[in-house]
Amino acid sequence: MKQDIHPTTHPVIFVDTSCGAEFMTHSTLKSEETRSIDGTDHYIINVEISSASHPFYTGKQILVDTARRVEKFAEKMKMQEKKAAVRKGKKVKRATRAKAKNSEANSEESKDSK
Predict the structure, then answer these.
(1) Which regions of 7-86 does DSSP assign to beta strands (E)?
(2) Does any domain span residue 2?
(3) Residue 21 sits in which domain range?
């Protein structure tokens, strides 16, 4: 490891303000507030959310759709399904074209035979 290029780290306690959970670790962050644990001063860093309170990690995840994205997507898919039900596929289009060509050919043959 090269000397004097790495930031200095300090012992810190991250405190989750929403549930009160505390995590002791080392970080480059500092704060005004400190707590002495086993003779070592730890900086106290308050955080609003952590793995102890985040819905993804606690299993209490609720989908909050403020921009109506889910409803808009559902409406878009319904419209697409309606259009797809009315729309004709390639096979039907080919058969219709072939039928039209055959009827044209038959009408020309009948004109020629007269």
Answers:
(1) 10-16, 22-27, 34-37, 40-47
(2) no
(3) 10-113
Position 3 in a domain: no
Give residue-wise pLDDT tens across range 72-108.
899 999 999 888 888 878 888 888 889 888 888 877 7
CB proximity list for 44: less than 8 A, separation 6 or greater: 12, 13, 15, 31, 33, 34, 35
pLDDT in tens, 25-46: 999 999 999 999 999 999 999 9
Residues 6+ apart with CB under 8 A from 75: none
Closest CA to 22 of 61, 52, 2: 52
The contacts found for 33-38 with CB under 8 angstroms, 24 or more apart, are 37/13
Tens digit of each residue's pLDDT (9 = 90 or more) over 3-16: 889 999 999 999 99
